[in-house]
Amino acid sequence: MTEARFDEVIHAPTRLAIVALLAATRWADFKFIRDRAGLSDSALSKQLTILEDAGYITIRKAFVGKFPRTSVSLSKRGRAAFNGHVSALQQIVAGAGASLRAS
Amino acid sequence: MSEQRLEAGDAALELAEIERRQTGVIDAVLIPRWYWWAVGLLVVPIGVTVDSHQRIATAVVAVLMALVIAGLSVWMVSGSYPGARIQPATLGSAGALYIVGFVWLVVGVSLVVAFGLQAAGVAYPATIGTVLAAVMLIVGGPMLMTRLRRTMVARSVGAR
After folding, report:
1. What are phi and psi of A68, to 5 degrees?
2. Which residues of A touch B87 (CB under 8 A)?
3. pTM
4. What is the least distance, in Å, from the CA of A99 to any CA of chain B?
5. Among residues A54, A85, B20, B31, which is most buried (max CB within 10 A)?
6. How many C-beta neighbours within 10 Å does residue B100 have?
7. Tell me: the pLDDT tens digits for B29-41?
8. What whole-number distance in Å separates Cα of residue B38 and Cα of residue B3?
C-alpha cells in the first residue's frame, strides 16, 4: 500500500512528464527522454539535475563503441515518491467525487 | 466548493497526463511490425536447406540465421532499439506468459507439422514447417504486441 503524499518536486509539469515516463521503464536513454518529453538538451539536463539532487533518479554515463550514452533510471526513493504522488492525486479526485455525491 | 472542484480537476488532468506519458513509452518500446517480418523471412532458409539434405549448407545457414535472429532479438528486447527498457512490473507475469506462450506455440506447432509431414512422406516438410512458423510470426507477432499493449497500459501506474 503506497502512502499518499503530494510531491512538489514531481508536480512541476516538465518533471512530471520525465518521472511519469521513467516510472514505466527500468531505464531510458537521455535522447529517448528528450524526444518523448519534447525538451531541449539543456532543459532536460537542468530538470535531471533537480531530480538527481532530490535522490529521485540515477544517471549512468557509458560508452557504446565510440559513442557516449547517458541512461537514466528512477531510484527506489523516486519510485516511492511518484507512487505516493499518484495516490495523492487519486485521493483528491476521489474526495471530490465523494463530496459531490454527498451534496 | 469551487476550489475543491478546481483542485480535483487539476489532479484529474495530472493523472491523465501521467497515463498519456506512460502509454507513449509503452507504444515506443513495443516490437515493430518489421521485426516479425524479418524473423519470419530469416527462418524460412533454414527449412529450405534442411530439405536440401546438404549437411554443411544446413549447418552454416542454421547457425548464421540463428545468430542474426538472436542478435536482432537481443537488440529489441534489451531496449537498445527504442532507447528504453520497460519496467518488468509494467509487463507483469501475464505479459511474460503471453510472450513465452507465443514462442512455444510457434516452435511447437511448426515442429509438429514438419515432423508430421516427414512421417507422412510429404515433400519439403521442413520448408513447409518454417513457412508456417513465418506466417505465425508475421500474423501473430503484431497480435501479441496488441495484447501486450493492452496489458501494460492497464498495469501502468497512471491507469490505476
Report:
1. -75, 140
2. 23-26
3. 0.82
4. 9
5. A85
6. 10
7. 999 999 999 999 9
8. 56
Among B18, B86, B158, select the one facing A25 at the smallest CB separation.
Answer: B86
Instruction: Please state whether B57 falls in left (phi above 0), alpha (psi between -120 and 50) or beta.
Output: alpha
Cell of A75: 531510484
With a CB-CB cutoff of 8 Å, which residues 1-20 of chain A face chain B? 11, 13, 16-17, 20
Q: Kindly report the nearest CA distance between residue A33 and chain B, in angstroms.
A: 9
Tell me if residue A29 falls in helix, strand or coil.
Answer: strand
**How confident is residue B9, by pLDDT bands cut at 50, 70 and 90?**
confident
B82 touches chain A (CB under 8 A): yes
- Which residue out of B3, B7, B13, B18 would a mutagenesis test of the A interface target, given it has the greatest number of A Cβ atoms within 10 Å? B18
pLDDT digits (tens, 9 = 90+) for A58-101: 999 988 777 888 999 999 999 999 999 999 999 888 877 655 55
CA B130 to chain centre: 17
Report the complex ipTM: 0.87
Contact A23, A84 (CB under 8 A): no
Does A99 lie at the interface with B, CB-CB under 8 angstroms?
Answer: yes
Cβ distance of B8 and A93 shorter than 8 Å: yes
**Can you read off the three cell numbers belonging to residue B132?**
508456417
Q: Which residues contact A66 (CB under 8 A, 6 or more apart)?
A: none
Contact A86 B18 (CB under 8 A): yes
B124 in the Ramachandran plot: left (φ > 0), alpha (ψ -120 to 50) or beta?
A: left
